[in-house]
Amino acid sequence: MTGAKRKKKNVLWSKMHTPHWEDFKQWCRKRLPILEWAPHYNLKENLLPDTVSGIMLAVQQVTQGTFALTSLISANAVERLVPLSVQNLTTQSNTSVLGLSDFEMQRIGVAAAVSFLGGVIQVAMFVLQLGSATFLLTEPVISAMTTGAATHVVTSQVKYLLGMKIPYISGPLTFFYIYVYVFENIRSVRLEALLLSLLSIMVLVLVKELNEQFKRKIKVVLPVDLVLIIASSFACYCTSMEKTYGLEVVGHIPKGIPPPRAPPMHVLSAVITEAFGVALVGYVASLALAQGSAKKFKYSVDDNQELLAHGLSNVIPSFFFCIPSAAAMGRTAVLYSTRAKTQVACLISCIFVLLVIYAIGPLLYWLPMCVLASIIVVGLKGMLIQFRDLKKYWNVDKIDWGIWVSTYVFTICFAANVGLLFGVVCTIAIVIARFPRAKTLSIKNIKEMEFKVKTEVDGETLKQVKIVSINNPLVFLNVKKFHTDLINIIQKENASNLLLDDISKCEQNTLLSPLSNGNCSEEASQPCQNEKCSLILDCSGLTFFDYSGVSMLVEVYMDCKNQSVDVSLAHCTASLIKAMKYHGNLDSEKPIFFESVSAAISNIHSNKNLSKLSDHSEV
């Protein structure tokens, strides 16, 4: 007995705890996707293409670094808090971290603080489930913001492309001030840097176009970025371009990774603006690429999961003095072109980047900055050619075209996060302006409904029933339009419906006239006296509502009731039924809520038969 009881207890214990364990495993698989796909990884089919893609991706990682837009935002914080002008005023002393000076560590610390706080903001957005708000980020807004941000990045590279010394300029209209300075000091352009930049851009564009054109015929594309880096660094080393022509080079690159250490917390309050910019711009740009990939390869994207992934990708590396990161269009294109199969390609890329950090990094000392700037500018081609979207928006919707242009202008005049905020606010304002004028109602197809219920209802009943479908949410923005649409629909059917012949006698009907005070003439005080008429509202398209919407539905019901018009509501949600019952004094003697339009028609037919039977009884 004791063993049987113990066994029964274990079974009960197992039943009680198995669901919780399954829920936990499911949560882990959802938040750590590698647990889902790694056990099913096919080494034979996927390892080779993933390895090739990982190597090519590592090459681009080394040449371009992380996401240019978030890097630019971080650089603004660094230049604002620890400007280069302070370097000559401070005593230079090396720290124990990779042989870097105190000044260099201060600048790196500010960038790490931006990464840390930006990641914290993204994780907080995940906890608050704000990923669901991404529906506000429309395609024109994202396209304009990323194009404007790419324009800023190109502008930041102008000084290297031209070999000029440009002082740090910040604040609104920085974009224009930089070009004004360039034209005012055009004679200080270093011709050697300009020619090398033009040559590098021409080579990069030409080879990349050839790679794109013949990508189906060649198995491995030519890594022109890597070839250009090796060739230019070797040429600069052999000819001493740094001293002979005054070309600026990358300079000393520390070897290895510093030991983990918390970023400087005392500067967090000073980098809040840049942190929000990194969090929003990085997430939006990454999400746009993720959604594009999902559409291309037929899978879904969890917007909140993306927030968690990017947040942790910024918080954890910040303890190793890493700058903010995000997905980039250029690297995504490399994965497409090299036919990467899984995320193992990214893992292999990380291994090769570590190899560069520990062994090859110092060899990039002689890389000319104008060549590096050319690689960065060409890498932004995918974002810059989004100007072509203007034609599409103009032909489809000129309002979207206006949103694109205005968002772009705000982005280049101020910053990427300001442009993004303006685009979202502008989109919401336009929706608010459009929403009340949107069509809220439509007449149901009576022939289709007649076919569905022809075995239950006679044609005479259908002629007395008006079926109206609610197509939009019913909120304060469109309740007046809803009332107007309902009036227009009923008035439009006046000539063909017996109901409307009787109702037309009442010139001040509260349902049909928005200016009515509810008084009718004696002749029309009892409309539909011979035949009782009915209105069915199909609420299947009423996805949500507010207090104003419920008030209007109750008002319509009461107006119709006063005019002897039966109102039935079909496909109502439980919350709508509860709200209407709570708000108004609805008729409790007969039902007004039905599961379907057919059920409502059947109820009307039954009531009609009962009414006829009652009339015969009275006779």
From TrEMBL:
Residues 455-604 form the STAS domain. InterPro entries: SLC26A/SulP_dom, SLC26A/SulP_fam, STAS_dom, STAS_dom_sf. It is a multi-pass membrane protein. GO terms for molecular function: chloride channel activity; chloride:bicarbonate antiporter activity. Keywords: Anion exchange, Cell membrane, Endosome, Ion transport, Membrane, Transmembrane, Transmembrane helix, Transport. Belongs to the SLC26A/SulP transporter (TC 2.A.53) family. This is Anion exchange transporter. It comes from Equus asinus (Donkey).
